[in-house]
Amino acid sequence: CRVRRYKFNVVMKNVTRLCTTKPIVTVNGQFPGPTLYAREDDNVIVEVVNNVQYNVTIHWHGIRQIRTGWADGPAYITQCPIPPGQRYAHNFTITKQRGTLLWHAHVLWLRATVHGAIVVLPKLNVPYPFQPPDKEVVIILGEWWNSDVEAVINESMASGLAPNVSDAHTINGYPGLMSKCGSQDGSYLLRVHTGQKYLLRIINAALNEELFFRISGHRLTVVETDAIYTKPFETDTILVGPGQTTNVILSADRPAGRYMMTASTFLDTPIAVDNVTATATLHYTGSLSTDAVTFSNPPPVNATAVASSFIDSLRSMNSPEYPARVPETVDHSLLFVVGMGVNPCNACSSGIKVLADINNVSFVLPSVALLQAHYYNVSGVFTDDFPGRPPTRFDYTGNNTVAGLGTTTGTKVYRVKYNETVQVVLQGTTFIAPENHPFHLHGFNFFAVARGIGNYDPEESPETFNLVDPIERNTAAVPSGGWIAIRFRADNPGVWFMHCHLEVHTTWGLKMAFLVDNGEDPDQSLMPPPSDLPTC
Ligand code: C2O
User: Is 362 a residue whose pLDDT tops 70?
Assistant: First the structure.
């Protein structure tokens, strides 16, 4: 175990994409940002220095932060933002995790450009559970916005309506040759040698879209998702939701040449979509940059069957070394109905305001961080009456109309005792439009024990639960017009955010938090806050 120190300097940087140059918020002037490398059991200290005009926080997405919630990063949940000109050192230890994760800004919409990879290597002398690759490569999928993202979200909040979508997807920062500026922007090129194996660490850092990724002519072997090893399986297309990561092995075993990589939207609902496919090139040694690039079409935007078959193939490794510890019993069985709503809004130019809610509560960020309020017993910041059930049961995925949807607002948490087990069924609805909701839980990994289309049935649905080798991850999608069931053990004291990782839905209120009390032993309690923790 060793200490790894990083300095993240948040600065503006002029970047040119889609033939336009504009200043964006970056870490250390890089887009995407720097990769953070560590080994399992390392102590990581990242000093974030805010040199921009915005308030900033950084979240280490998927790092469990056991007893160190102060370092987690979501603004007003675990910390107050770092004001311009200030700094904050995040100090945490990475335990029982190895693989690929991501870090990103967790305030406003800054994560559009403020994100990067976290690579957690196994402990020294502990091998991968698969044949060691010849080389490892980070591939970050993202988006590019011609306008300033903060302006995009501010406009949307002022009008009450949905924001504009981004102007292109990106692979390692570049839209690629199919974008309107094509080669003028440059594009990402991965050079490979015939016969070698590559571990691709693929991250979806996009704000608002689940993405299909494929490499023309090649099969990919999935070996890990969200820093948990999986049972390996082969596929030609992977699906990565925002906040998710997937490690695959690529064998350079095709005739030497050039092959197109694509990142394209998956969205099985008819709403505004950025469908510019990002491309990059796989280039075998010995081919020429003038050689034609082999291209196969990405799946269509509504390829639900492709998405489902990928998700259904994911299984935890569940080996003696890497067991799947699925909670067999549950202390809290919750049903969270995830909906969209419309409320009247006098201050909005459209007269209405789109909201999103869980069990009819649209979450309002407090002005003091919840974790601080909890630790110092500050009253009046939140209440612990988050409803574990919807107010009424009805046909969630039927032919619902918007009429009569009055969503309430509040800052409510759901409280559990240390080490209790929690099952949450996340039920999608058809209000406004059915949509996928990639849900992320901070502070834990959960097991995605089942998913289904239509309404969850408390009698029949539990029979389909996989309690043996379900996939373990930190982000999983509620299917459009359907549900998922997740389970986790609350073995991490603190306040932990859970939200849809489509940033627009988070902004609309599709979020809540779990409060986990300290356990009885001293090593089961939240550590004291660091002295440089920002205050509100
Ligand atoms: Cu990656 Cu709360 O987010």
Answer: yes
Strand partners, 235: 220
Which residues have CB under 6 Å of ligand 1?
A: 59, 61, 74, 104, 106, 243, 440, 442, 497, 499, 501
- CA proximity to 57, closest of 114, 4, 14: 114
**C-alpha angle with apex 90: 84 to 93, nearest 5 degrees?**
170
Cβ contact 375:526 at 8 Å: yes
pLDDT of residue 458: 95
pLDDT of 425 strictly over 80: yes
333 CA → ligand 1 middle, Å:
24
Tell me the per-residue pLDDT of 433-458, one tens digit each, with 9 for 90 and over.
Answer: 778 899 999 999 999 999 999 999 99
Distance 195 CA to ligand 1 centre (A): 38
What percentage of the chain's residues is helix, strand, coil (to nearest 5)?
Answer: 10, 40, 50
Distance 520 CA to ligand 1 centre (A): 29
Confidence of residue 163 (pLDDT cuts 50, 70, 90): confident
Q: What is the CA(501)–ligand 1 centre distance, in A?
A: 6
Q: Which residues pair with 143 in a beta bridge?
A: 169
Q: Which atom of ligand 1 is nearest to the CA of 102?
A: 1
Q: Specify the pLDDT at position 435.
A: 82
List C-alpha distances in Å: 210 to 19, 50, 120, 525: 25, 30, 24, 36
Closest CA to 308 of 452, 464, 164: 452
Average pLDDT over every residue of 113-131: 97
3-state DSSP of 469-481? CCEEECEEEECCC
Separation of CA 445 and ligand 1 centre (Å) = 13
Nearest to 296 by CA among 284, 282, 275, 314: 282
Q: Is 510 helix (H, G, I), strand (E, B) or coil?
A: coil
For the CA of 506, the closest atom of ligand 1 is 2
Ligand 1 atom with least separation from CA of 77? 2
Residues contacting residue 187 through CB under 8 Å, at least 6 positions apart: 171, 174, 175, 176, 177, 279, 280, 281
Among the atoms of ligand 1, which is closest to the Cα of residue 442?
A: 2
Mean pLDDT of the chain: 93
Q: Is the pLDDT of residue 340 over 80?
A: no
pTM of the model: 0.96
Structure tokens at 207: 């704000």
Question: In angstroms, rounded to a whole number, what is the distance separating the alpha carbons of residues 526 and 70?
Answer: 9
Given a cut of 80, whether residue 269 has pLDDT beyond it is: no
Higher-pLDDT residue of 29 and 432 is 29
| Partner residues linked to 92 by β-bridges | 44
Closest C-alpha among 270, 259, 141, 291 to residue 210: 141
Q: How confident is the model at residue 367 (pLDDT cuts 50, 70, 90)?
A: very high
